[in-house]
């Protein structure tokens, strides 16, 4: 019985853990490039504080700049709020709720569709700076569920 409870605990913990933070590969398999509809890519996805955006592209071809909504509309790359990021494998943390606008800073690329806007939700009431306490409480919760379950099974 104890083994069964442990197994259930592990299963529940494993199932819940990935919900803590998600890494979104921008454009999925297409990556960050011209002629991809990033509005379509972002549609239906819920971005939460703690999640990450990953921009993958050949470093010499593109870059990533975070700009204001107005600069996004105008494809104005001179008003960078953050960046340019140009590693070709940029992991950008969504560390605050609200809208975020990203464009490629290479000439003509933003106008060519290399622009992404995401809306970041606050998510959990108090996002922990590290995932350790959250994981701990999840494991504790899973253990409680498993303990209750094993008690039921004992009857
Ligand atoms: Cu580009």
Automatic annotation (TrEMBL):
Localization in the cell: Membrane
Database matches in CDD domains: Phytocyanin
Membrane topology value: Single-pass type I membrane protein
Molecular functions per Gene Ontology: electron transfer activity; metal ion binding
Residues spanning the signal sequence: 1-21
Protein name: Phytocyanin domain-containing protein
InterPro entries for this protein: Cupredoxin, Phytocyanin-like, Phytocyanin_dom
Ranges for domain Phytocyanin: 22-122
């Amino acid at each position: 019985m104890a083994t069964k409870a442990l197994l259930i605990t592990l299963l529940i913990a494993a199932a819940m853990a990935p919900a803590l933070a998600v890494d979104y590969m921008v454009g999925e398999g297409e990556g960050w490039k011209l002629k991809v509809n990033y509005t379509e890519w972002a549609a239906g996805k819920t971005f939460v504080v703690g999640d990450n955006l990953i921009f993958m592209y050949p470093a010499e071809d593109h870059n990533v700049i975070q700009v204001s909504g107005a600069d996004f509309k105008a494809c104005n790359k001179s008003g960078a709020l953050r960046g340019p990021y140009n590693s070709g494998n940029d992991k950008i943390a969504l560390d605050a709720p609200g809208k975020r606008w990203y464009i490629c800073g290479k000439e003509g690329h933003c106008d060519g569709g290399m622009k992404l806007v995401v809306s970041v939700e606050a998510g959990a009431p108090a996002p922990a700076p590290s995932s350790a306490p959250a994981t701990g409480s999840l494991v504790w919760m899973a253990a409680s569920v498993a303990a209750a379950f094993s008690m039921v099974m004992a009857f």
